[in-house]
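A protein record in our archive is deliberately plain, so that people and models can read it alike. The tokens are whole numbers drawn from a learned vocabulary of local backbone shapes. For reference, a complete record is included directly beneath this paragraph.
>
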Amino acid sequence: EFTASQFPFLVVNSYGDAPERGLARIAENLKDRLASNGTIVEARVLGKREELLEIVIDPVKLETYNISYQEIMAVVSANNRLVAAGSIETGQGSFAVKVPGIIRTGADALSLPVKQTDNAVVTLGDVAEVRRTFKDPTGFATFNGENALIIEVVKRSGANILDTANFVREAVAIEQESWPPTVQAIVTSDTSEMIGTQLGQLQSSIMTAIVLVMIIVVAALGLRSAALVGISIPATFVMAFLLLGAFGFTINMMVMFGLVIAVGMLVDGGIIVTEYADRKMAEGLDRKEAYTLAGKRMFWPVVSSALTTLAAFVPFLFWNSMPGKFMAYLPITLIFVLTASLISALIFLPVMGANFGARPGGTDEDLAALAADADPRKAKGWLGAYVRVVRETIRRPLMTTGAAFGLVFLIFMWFGSEQHKSELFLDIEPEQAYVFVQAQGALSAAEQAE
């Protein structure tokens, strides 16, 4: 079992004209700074060779002191080990105790006694030379053709990827202040850039959807009534975000996509309440009585409309698979948004309408035509045209029903006759490409790098 959080979300490439040991020290310091952040699980360095102490024995001196190679190996092995010393139990658990007896520096190795005579003690420094070096390379890391050390950064599951990426860039900038001018660091494979771009596009889509909805609402209800409905959009989003945070959900791509879908739905209740109140004010009621009556009479229509909309998305909550877990954020977001829209339409909107509501100018005749004791056929404009169309279809019920069933039948026939491609995600061009080159034959690390 694995998760996407086990893979690095960005890579820091440190390269430049510097000694190998100095470049390794720079990479280790940067790694320690990155790992100190709680949102980062691991920062691993690739391309770094393991450092070791190399003991070069002089055969002539060994023969002079009558010492064998096996004695040298035994002395070094006996003095370079971690000795287990049992465990200590406390009231909250137990922990192992180990006695370190390892060689840390060249001076520690040179001072090891190898053989004792009557007059002196022969140490390792008398028969050998100790120097710092690296293991033979098994691979190379390069960036833009230069030798480099690569730091892969793995974030903690659930951590904010944008904040974590900003921390990594700030940490790199701080560490670079103490680096030689010949050493550079470049961040690559940063998945937060793609996510930031997508979030920006979704935010722009949400704003565009809000503007389009407001244009339609203003055209249909008038400026003041549209302002009452428009206030419900940010109010509903704020309440939805509070509910998401209270239940432990994060703001992700599916949540933002759900907000785009919900923009056109959350104003439905407000439009119904406002339009009914406008009609009652056209009949002669004052705004307080009109909005009070609208809140009472439109309660069940608004609630049933929201419930029927949510019913179409509820099955996504029980889709027990990886795509289902991904898609579950969509109905969850819609449930929170539409619940908040009900509170706004049935509580906040009547209160605000009772204090600030007014009939839109130029619509008194149309609204009066829709009164309970009026004749709708007297309405003019688009409303009048709609009334005439409905009247004609009601006068011909058999023809209207037959046309509806015939249209449905034709749609099913067309759909069955065509071959449709089914896919879970869109078939788009990838934004990244990885090329794996495998050498043929038993080549050395240097030959493979060439």
Notes: The chain is about 55% helix and 15% strand. The chain has three domains: 1-49+135-189, 51-133, 194-361. The radius of gyration is 37 Å. The mean pLDDT is 82.
